[in-house]
Structure formats: C-alpha cells, structure tokens
Prior knowledge:
The structure is a homodimer. By secondary structure, chain A is of the alpha+beta class. Chain A has a domain at 1-90: Winged helix-like DNA-binding domain superfamily/Winged helix DNA-binding domain (Arc Repressor Mutant, subunit A, Orthogonal Bundle), CATH 1.10.10.10. Chain A is built from 6 helices and 6 strands. In chain A, the strands form 2 sheets. Chain A has a two-stranded antiparallel ribbon. In chain A, strands 4-5 form a two-stranded antiparallel sheet. In chain A, a hairpin with a 4-residue loop joins β4 and β5. Chain A is globular. Residues 1-5 and 151-158 of chain A have low confidence and may be disordered. At the A-B interface, α1, α2, α3, α6 and β3 of A face α1, α2, α3, α6 and β3 of B. Chain A binds a DNA duplex through residues 23, 38-40, 43, 48-55, 75-80.
Amino acid sequence: MDxxxxxxxxxxxxxxxxxxxxxxxxxxxxxxFYGLRRFSDIQExxxxxxxxxxxxxDEMVEEGLLERRPYREPGRRERTEYVLAxxxxxxxxxxxxxxxxxxxxxAGDDGVPVHAEHAGCGASVRxxxxxxxxxxxxxxxxxxxxxxxxxxxxAVAG
Amino acid sequence: MDxxxxxxxxxxxxxxxxxxxxxxxxxxxxxxFYGLRRFSDIQExxxxxxxxxxxxxDEMVEEGLLERRPYREPGRRERTEYVLAxxxxxxxxxxxxxxxxxxxxxAGDDGVPVHAEHAGCGASVRxxxxxxxxxxxxxxxxxxxxxxxxxxxxAVAG
DNA sequence: CGGCTGGGTTCGACGTGCGAACTCAGCTAG
DNA sequence: CTAGCTGAGTTCGCACGTCGAACCCAGCCG
Lengths: 158, 158
C-alpha cells in the first residue's frame, strides 16, 4: 500500500486545517498568547474587520479553542473576554513552528520581534521534530509510512 | 514595553501566514511530502480545481517552496513535476504540529492514518517545543518577551 | 433623560476561489 | 498526413466570504 493512495480527507492535517486554516484564526490565537482578550483590543491590533472578527470568535468558541468569560472592571459594564482553552493552547507548537519558519526564510529585518522562553529555566524555546529515542530530527530524515487509520481512496473498508 | 504593543504585521507568524495560510498551500506541501509531484496526481488526490492548483503551484514556485523540474517518461511528452525545495521542506514541522493537533483533538476515528519515523533509528517522530537547555516544554510553560526586532504599533522608531 | 462607549450586527461592494468548459502541444495510431 | 488522445494549463461566469462603514443596543455617567 502506497501513501499516495491515502484518502486526503481522512488526514489529520486536512481536518486541522478546516478549523485552523480559516483566515485570522491563528492570528487571533497569537493575540491570545500575547495576552489580548478583549474584542476591541484584538480587532484594533489585528486590523481585522469587526464583522469577521465576531464571526471568527464565535466559531472558535464553538470549536473549543477559546472560552468566553464575563469580565467586569469597576464602574464599567460587564464585558466578554476570550481566553485560551486547552484545545487552543495546544496549537502553540504550530504557531512557534510558523514563527521559526518566518524568522528563517522571511527575515530581512532587524531580528526576532518576540522571544519565547521556558518558564522553568529561562532558555529560549523552539519547535523541533524529535523522535521517541530523543534525537532531534531533521526534516529531510523523516520516512512516512501508512498507519493504522489509513484508508484507501477507492475502498470503503480495508 | 508590552507585548500587546507589538505591531502585528512585523510578526513572523503573520508574514508566514501570508504565504502558508493561502488555501491549499499546506495540503499541496503535504502531498509533496507523500511523494506526489505531478500536476494531475496532486489535483486528483486533493480534489482541488485545476485553475486554483495551477495558480497555487505558480505562487509556490515563485516563493521558493517548490521547484519546477522537467521530467520525461519514455515515449511520453516532457512534463513538469514539482519537487520540494528547502524552503518548503522546512515547513515540515508545521505540518507535523498540525497533524498532531488533529490526531489529539479531532480524533474520533480509527487511529493515525500516517506514521512518520526517523530515518536514522526508526522511532516515531513528533513535533515538540524544546528549550535550549534540552527540556521538552509544555505549551503552558512558555513566557513571551519582546525581542530585538520588536516594533511599537504607534512609534516608527523606538 | 440624553449622550457616550464597548461590543457587536447589518449591508452593499468588491475580490477571490470555485467547477466546467475550452485551448494547446506533443505523442501515437491509422 | 491526419485524427484523436492526454496532460497541463487558461478562461469564464457564478457564488461565497471579506471588507469598511453605518447602524444598533445595553449599561453607565453627567
């Protein structure tokens, strides 16, 4: 059986992209990692239109990436803020991997705008491919093989 | 200086997404990692329209993600195939991170369709956050700080 | 009570992705 | 030499999604 026969839509990459690949989703998450939580802060910071942001936030709450949480400053009306849920926080490696790729290949300016470090030891954090034997793996040194959940394009079962 | 003041567009994540966030780009790369190279194979496998695929491949070659390479089967006309360039191959961690997230949060079926393993030792490969001290880092244990290339939204030089 | 502000929703215009149909070059069969 | 096939696009009209701007609404404040 050949990897080329894999039904494209059963792939986790494709399923992930249906959610994460929508415009603004990863950027909203990035804002959330930066600590922005309020609608107008996110809207202003990203420069996204309000209508699209409202729709995207709804979807992201629906998907479980963010949680809506009522919030109240003294003397102010109650507001909603959007905080990272676990499912959203687990996308952090994707964001780090994207940032690294951009830092490496789209550079041309004065350096890395944001630096991530390990809360435990203070050392900077990178996304790496690692194998279970503990080696750091280069992208060229990966072999892909069919796994248990593989499905042929042209066969319903088997 | 607060991370919230970062100009959104200087972020490598945003710059990466301008390229990688376009529809089909990551899926075309996934196909490339699987070994698909020919236009019609990719088109048929992904189910993308020819017009969009042609445009996307042009852009990806333009961006340096893929390389066009003439190819000829005996008794056949010369064709073009699209092979991964280094810049495209370096996106593999992004794809692995997306796949892992999908495997974890969008599961609900019979397992992982594709298994990646280290060509050196045969152990399976994952994308992990690691710090320079060599620790594997949890997404919750990351602190973000301004780096050297940071730019305020409201100040040209600062 | 009347205005202000945060947090949306609604609306029309534009842009872009989409599938289907068309084009075109080179190979092959007759 | 011609007719037909195939792979690889290109063109076309439609539909959906994003956009900015305008509108709305609830609560607080003077």
